[in-house]
Amino acid sequence: MPLRQLALLCCILLAPLRFALAENYAAVDFLEKPGPHAVGVKVVEQYDRTRQFGSAVDQTIRTEPARPLQTLIWYPAQKSARPAMTMGNYLALMDTEVSFGEPRRTRDSDLLKSWLQASLGQSMSAVRDASLEAGRFPVVIYAPSFSSTSWENADLCEYLASYGYVVIASPGMGEKSRESTHDLSGVNAQASDVSFLIGYAASLPDTDMTKIAAMGFSWGGLADLFAASRDPRIKALVSLDGSERYFPGLVEASKTVHPDKMTIPLIYFEEGDQSLEDQDRLNSHFHADGPNILNQWLHGDLVTVRMLGLFHPEFCSIAYRNEELWEKELPDLQIADYGRADGLIGYSWIMRYTRAFLDFQLKQDAQAGAFLKAPPTANGVPNHTMSVKVRPSAPVTNTAVGNPTN
After folding, report:
1. Which end of the chain is more exposed for a tag (fewer CB within 10 A), N or C?
2. How far is CA 118 from the centre of its chain?
3. Which of these, 224, 222, 343, lies nearest to 286 by C-alpha position?
4. Which residues contact 28 (CB under 8 A, 6 or more apart)?
5. 3-391 classified as CATH 3.40.50.1820
6. What residue ranges do the domains of the chain occupy?
7. Cα–Cα nearest to 146, from 47, 60, 222
């Protein structure tokens, strides 16, 4: 198991794991299919020169002290006859994440390559550097999980681009190093990355800067909350089992992030089997006690989607590319008798509900709003897959100022 993927799995559930090769791989096939737009992807190597990165002894940074942000942009594109990206193409980006122009193999990339070996040749949807489709599209900034890659949820990012969104992401990193840290400096660093990418989006010819959302998985969800509390350009939040639910103590310790004053809409997808004992164990380990973030979210619309059969890693699409994750390595994390096939169904509905939420909030699509409010079974969701609760915002008072411009 790669170090970054190990952190992804352990930071919430604290489960002991070991690395294993995937031997019996079946191609990932999500139920949700691409939308009407062809998809392109660009890779931009850029620096945030307002922030330092690394140290005098950090050999990953040699000539440039500024913060490196390898940026991926998925976008609606003109149709192209060129081959689409493969999982192997995405994985190769790890070698230059912080060493632009100087590929450097790392233990993490080698391990992840082994973990994904059977799927490296699998074609995805996006064509690298495809020509832009005419028009301007809403923007979604994606924040990865703890120390993870920008493309950990490439399937979801490509899917949204095919339905008319520009999705932008950079790796999940700590304040001074490639590895994230479970502290305020770490989450603030990634939150600043989100705002930096919004600024970068303004330079692109195909973005509608009046329609911006932030989306994140695990630690990235917490970073998005921090970013949205300070950046009025963010109009909606999508959280994939985000750490704001698991680390409320960090929110309280910030002294600047106030969920009870936020007025923007949030959709939160949560795993289906997080017990009080698990939460207590997590709080004890990270000293994370604090008020529940979702309970405090009173002045912005809140959609809570409980994925009944999914455990934390299943909110990340690359996790589905190793069947042994369920069959041999994670028996203690599997929920009841839900298996990988059930996970593929659940993740597909995450894709669909994410699109509906963004269509409603950013495109003012009334049909998408009705979809969110309807019972899941009325939308075609199989029984025992998910539950949905919609809580409209409470009236704003003088103390509920929330996102600075809302």
Report:
1. C
2. 24
3. 222
4. 119, 122, 155, 317, 320, 321, 344
5. yes
6. 3-391
7. 222
